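Consider what follows.

. . .
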Amino acid sequence: MNLLGPAAGLALIAPTLAKLLWRKELGAVPWWRLIGSVFGVCAVVTLAGLVLLGNDGKMLTYAAMVLGCALALWWSGFVSKSR
């Protein structure tokens, strides 16, 4: 549970803030879709950091999680919407 806690927290906070900041642009994108994509990417990054670095909680893993979160929001909110 603690391993995926940061991924779950980021998956709730980031899409909520994105929907508030880009109301018009993200109005048609469901909130649960953004949450699902962010959580999936952050969980994979956390598990990859655990495997590659040997333990969780490294700053490199958290930095990669933030980058992955931004890319997941961008992709599911802006890129895939236009297709």
